[in-house]
Design brief:
By secondary structure, the protein is mostly helical. The protein has one domain. It has 7 helices and 4 strands; from the N terminus they run H-E-E-E-E-H-H-H-H-H-H. The strands form 2 sheets. It has a two-stranded antiparallel sheet with strand order 1-4. Strand 2 and strand 3 form a beta hairpin. The longest helix has 15 residues. It is globular, with a radius of gyration of 14 Å. The protein starts with 8 loop residues before the first helix and ends with a helix. The mean pLDDT is 79.
């Protein structure tokens, strides 16, 4: 069963709020594209998560994040290059009781990287999450 393709008003508002952060990797506030890591129609336990699980990325990051292992290696290099921004994200994530380490980047696959970046989005917008906690837990267990 596929989920809905078009977002509802709450999902559109969330998407624009996330886009307003600028790139979650570089912090760029220029053109920001919205990446749907699980696809727009993703469903988990009969709950649509596709329009909630979104990442704000610069166009070149959007192209690379879903590319080859070499492309993801470049994304990891980009994350390290913007360490001041990413340090803040790591710090905010650790405030939520999670443990992330730069060395983990070396072994993370695409899903781990995308879930980490989404937790960073959630941390930055934690006072304004428009969905229930179970949606977040479904996303963190994706794609298992």
């Amino acid at each position: 069963m596929a989920g809905k393709v078009n977002p509802n008003a709450k999902e559109k508002a969330w998407r624009e709020q996330v886009r307003g952060l600028g790139s979650i990797i570089s912090g760029s506030k220029g053109v920001v594209e919205v990446h749907h890591p699980a696809g727009r129609t993703a469903i988990r336990n009969k709950e649509p998560i596709g329009h909630w699980f979104v990442l704000p990325l610069a166009p070149h990051e959007h192209t690379l994040i879903a590319g080859t292992d070499m492309d993801r290696g470049f994304i990891k290099t980009e994350i390290r290059a913007h360490s001041v921004y990413v340090d803040r994200l790591f710090q905010q994530s650790s405030l939520r009781g999670e443990i992330y380490d730069y060395c983990d980047l070396e072994i993370w696959g695409q899903h781990d990287l995308e879930k980490f970046l989404f937790r960073c989005v959630e941390s930055l917008l934690s006072d304004e999450l428009p969905y229930d906690e179970y949606i977040s837990s479904f996303i963190q267990r994706w794609p298992r």
